[in-house]
Amino acid sequence: MLDLVIRDGLIVDGSGLPARRGDVAVVGGRIVSVGGRAGEARRVIDATGRVVAPGFIDPHTHYDAQLCFDPYAFPAIEHGVTTVVPGNCSLSLAPLRIDQRDAFSRMFRLIEEMPEAAFDAGVDWRWGEGFGGWLDALTGNLALNVAPLVGHSVLRMFVMGPDAQARAATAEEIGAMADLLRTCLDAGAVGLSTSFVDIDESYRPVPSRWAAPEELDALSAVLGERDAILQIVHEFFDTDLTIARIEQLAELSLRHGITTTLSPLFHSDANHRGVMRVMEAIESARARGAAVWPQVQTRPIDISFTLDQRSLMLLTMPTWWKVASIRDRNDKLAAVADQRQALVDEMNGLALRPNAGLGAGGFVVRDVVHQRNDDLIGRSIDDIARDRGTTHGDTIVDLALDEDLGTWFIRASIGHQNSQAVGELLAHPYVHLGASDGGAHVGSFSTFGDTGYLFSEFVRTTKSLSLEAAVKKITLDPAQIWKLRGRGLLSAGYAADVVVFDADTIGRGPEIASDDFPGDGLRWIRRQEGVDTVVVNGEVTWSAVDGYVAGARAGEIATRS
Amino acid sequence: MGRRQYVFPQAGDDLAAIAARELPSTEHGAQQLLSWNLHLAARAGLGRSGGLLPSDIVFTEPPPAASTP
């Protein structure tokens, strides 16, 4: 008797080969047959008229903190995601010394925009200090699979203490970091992540940025020993710097035989030639035999913000950042009134920057508190300012003050919105589909539903990819790039990570505010559209009929091949 | 179109030291480098202590000319 049969679906197995009709049979968390007619099973899922595909793999996430209090990484699973890679961009929750938790937490919360209350309520540090302890704490309490990276910044902090953000490492310290990295990889890390761009809450470069090239080279040698991957977040806002990092990665890849990936790579109509130059550099690296994978996300870029909480959007405006950081509501309102002119000036200054989008109606009122302001929802700040005869900055600050800072604004169409051009990028054989940032930036934008958007926008609308090619991009391709053993393919012996969806309706759903995180504050999420069932290691974990299955904990720490 | 020439800082380097090594015949070499490296010029504190990070990329030639149609 089989445990599970997904009956009579359109099987898109992850290989990119043409879809075919048939059954997928599962025993004990593994696929035992694909295609044809399977026998009787304890549970049968009717997939007639639906696609049956491997579970989706999300290679760029920051679920590190969320996984501590939410084994489902809600709502990732309902979008068909069955494996996530946390620990990107040099930041992982381990290894970390007890007395470094506070400094690290402030850094993580700032960079990944995780609310302090949610982080503190959810992350209990029960695992102690080591990377293996963190994985032990997760094991048995996961509804989806986790393929964790270890962060370069925390390796430096662990070995160098406060000097991690003050100087290059000595040879002895580099040796200690290499040993620590070996320990983490042997415990289950799939690779190392590093950052060349991030800053902490004091505007200081994160520890990984203080590493000399020799240090990264030594750590890459360890990755080569263990056949593990190197992920970087690079200076993605600058074409020449991006190309230089690609060359650096290519050298590391060739010297140590490692796979490398950089994220994100965005398309911009204002810099189309720059994106083409980046892809030429990737092709040049590949021609030399280097494995360098740029990660490209599917969704266009937009950022929502309010004066009520810190946001990526406010980072370059010191007064806005300072005001949004104040916790006490009365103090915050008083500060806004006191700093009003500075707030107005900073916002108007932003309007003068090239491509700021303000004059083009790029800033829009997203939601209001008072009914009397309902007619402003959806209107651009440019439009409202013209009506009122005020500046853009005055308009935003006045409206926020009128609503006790509760107004939500959105800066839309920042980039990556040319679907034709993005579609061509996504279809490129050297492009790795990823960079969702899942679990991060929760108050700025939703990081959920990128996979649904892949199908709705780039398969159905622009037709940039076939259904089979799109599935391959988020299943077997990432499984091979990240060397995730036995995942990403519907084939006998592979893990039974399966998603059943409707190819005609799968989408990302509207972006909605949710107060489900611990503590106060909202986050932006998207609920699935067109997904029927998600199976993780043979266990039905979510379905459109029953929702999230209580107690489903079939997720594993994904292992490297 | 190829990549721009660049170097990584060596231990103790500031832009003047890099300019002396990479642009030995250039007058005002440090200023020249700064003008070619907006990402460094924009960083607070650069003028005070050298300001370079060990992982920094320092371009030693100007940005490419615009491509011809």
From TrEMBL, chain A:
Residue ranges of domain Amidohydrolase in the record: 43-223, 417-541
Protein name stated in the entry: Unannotated protein
One GO cellular component term noted in the UniProt record for this chain: cytosol
Protein source organism: freshwater metagenome
GO molecular function: hydrolase activity, acting on carbon-nitrogen (but not peptide) bonds, in cyclic amides
Residues forming coiled coils: none
Gene3D superfamilies on file: Metal-dependent hydrolases
TrEMBL record, chain B:
Protein name (database record): Unannotated protein
